[in-house]
Predict the structure of N-acetyltransferase domain-containing protein.
Amino acid sequence: MESSDIPQVHGLLAEQGWVMEKAYFDCAFKTDPRGFVVAETPSRKLIGCHGFLAHDPSMASMGLWIVDRESQSERVGHQMFGDLAQRFSAGTNIGTFIWPHNVDRIKDHYGISVLKSYMTWYNYGRIDPDTLKPCTDERFKILPASDVDMADILSYDAEIHQIPREAYIQNWIHHEQSKTYVAMRNNKVCGYGVLRSQDSFNQIAPLYADNKHIAKAIIRHLAKHVPGQTVGFSSPLQNSSAIDFAEANNMMKYGRPLLMIFYKNKIDIDTDRVYAVSSNSFGNC
C-alpha cells in the first residue's frame, strides 16, 4: 500500500459503513506503513484493505480487514492476509479483537487454536457531570501532556501495554484533534487519557489509570472539551470500575463484546488499570 491509496481506502470505509476515524487510519499507516496492503481490480479500483500494526518485531496487531461486498466471495481477504503474513517472521505473535463466536470458526477453517485474553465492551453516550465529582482525597494532579516529559508518558504506557510503542503514541497524542491529560502523583505518572474528536463522534482512547478516582479525574478534564456531546470508549469487561461508570451514565447500549486473542503467546495486561483501550480496529490495548 502507498500513501496515495489512503483517499481510496477512506472511500471504501465509507461505502461499507465502517465507522472509523480517518485520522486514526492515517496514524496507524504512518506508524507502520509496511504492514498494509490493498487489493485492486484490473481496472485499478480499490476493493480491499488489510493491516498489521507492529510496535515490535516480535508482535503485530491485526486489523482493518475489509473487502468490498461485491468481491467478498472471491477470497480477496485471504489473499491479503497471506501477503501480509509473509512479511513477518514465523515467530511473530499476532493479536486482534474478534467476536467471541469466531474462535471456533478460526479453528475449524484454519486449524488454529488461538489464546483468549480479555473482552471489551463499547460504551457511548453523554457523560453526567455528577458522576465525575472529585473524591475527598485526591492526592494527585492532572496536567496537560505538554507539561509532562513525553518519556515518562511512554514509560507508563509501556508498563501497561507491555510492548513499547513510541511511534504510535507520538503520532496519536500529537495529532491536532487530540486532547491528552496526564495524572501525576509524587512526580510520577499514575494515569493518562486521550480524547479524539473524530469524524462522526468523540472517542476516549486510551485511558489508563492506577485507580478509579484518577480515571474519573482524567475523564473530567477530557469531557470539558466536549460538553453535552456523545463520547465513546471501549473498556475491558474485567474492569468493574469502568463498567460501573459506563452503567451510571447509561452508556452500555445493546451490542456484543469483543475478545482479544493471540496467535502464539497470550499477553496478560492489568485490566484493572485499563479504562479504555486505544483501538478496537487494530487490536491495541
Summary: The mean pLDDT is 90. Residues 121 and 256 are 7 Å apart (CA to CA).
